[in-house]
Specification:
The chain is of the alpha/beta class and 251 residues long. Helices cover 37% and strands 21% of the residues. The protein binds calcium ion (CA). Calcium ion (CA) binds at residues 22-23, 66, 68-69.
Length: 251
């Protein structure tokens, strides 16, 4: 049974990562390191190859997605994935570190981003964290007494089916947006610090940069607030964090 080689048919036990990266040495380095860490790794050098691998090498559990690729950019690929109902975690690998590029990545539906050159242990930790979150998605949210549907203002969010509407129109939410909403819903009226949110929702402890949280709040306000610049549901507390108020619109 256990030969020295690869215990191949263990897809159910080993998470599969699709690395979309056109720089050959970088792709090879990622493949090697992720394989050493126990993952099944598939490499694509272009968006066209990535699309093909998603089908050929299914199931893929997570995508590491470069931004600049020979046949297009990772942002549009990610957006296209979300638009076609693919909710698997996507981590953007970006050489760009400007805030607007990070925001663009997150806006396109990516769950996280990692600026190049990156720290391998940190990347592995972020992948584990993203996979944990997506595993949580697969479990029945009602099984342990968690709320399956969240209603506030003009918003209805079904955590079990990922369906959400705001002002009567459907809203597509990423896994991380759902996780953040769920955490807010579990702690209504309490001011939650960025550090707490990063630790409990992102699984990042002592994160050097708490800006990710702010980017996500901007998105939630854009989806669910009648006036995103005068939020009544996702309320800022200067210097301390954010508070979720379900009936904020009623007063
Ligand atoms: Ca590239």
């Amino acid at each position: 049974m256990a030969e020295g080689g690869n215990p191949a048919p263990a897809n159910a036990l080993r998470a599969s990562v699709l690395v979309v990266e056109d720089e050959a040495h970088l792709a090879a380095g990622l493949k090697l390191n992720f394989e050493l860490d126990g993952y099944r790794v598939v490499v694509a050098r272009s968006l066209r190859e990535a699309g093909a691998q998603l089908v050929q090498s299914a199931p893929i559990d997570l995508i590491l997605l470069d931004v600049m690729l020979p046949d297009g950019d990772g942002y549009s690929f990610c957006k296209q994935l979300r638009d076609t109902g693919h909710y698997l975690p996507v981590i953007m690998l970006t050489a760009r570190s400007a805030a607007e590029d990070r925001v663009r990545g997150l806006d396109s539906g990516a769950d996280d981003y990692m600026p190049k050159p990156f720290d391998l242990p940190e990347l592995l930790a972020r992948v584990r964290s993203a996979l944990r979150r997506s595993g949580w998605r697969q479990s029945d949210p009602t099984a342990d007494g968690q709320q399956a549907t969240l209603r506030f203002g003009e918003a209805v969010i079904h955590f079990d089916t990922h369906e959400a509407t705001a002002f009567g129109k459907p809203v597509r939410l990423t896994q991380l947006e759902l996780d953040l909403l769920r955490y807010f819903a579990q702690h209504p009226g309490r001011v939650l610090s960025r550090e707490e949110l990063l630790e409990r929702v992102w699984n990042l402890r002592n994160a050097p940069n708490t800006r990710s949280v702010d980017n996500f709040i901007v998105r939630l306000r854009k989806y669910f607030e009648r006036e995103p610049d005068k939020p009544v549901h996702f309320v800022s507390h200067r210097g301390s964090g954010y508070r979720f108020v379900a009936d904020g619109g009623g007063l």
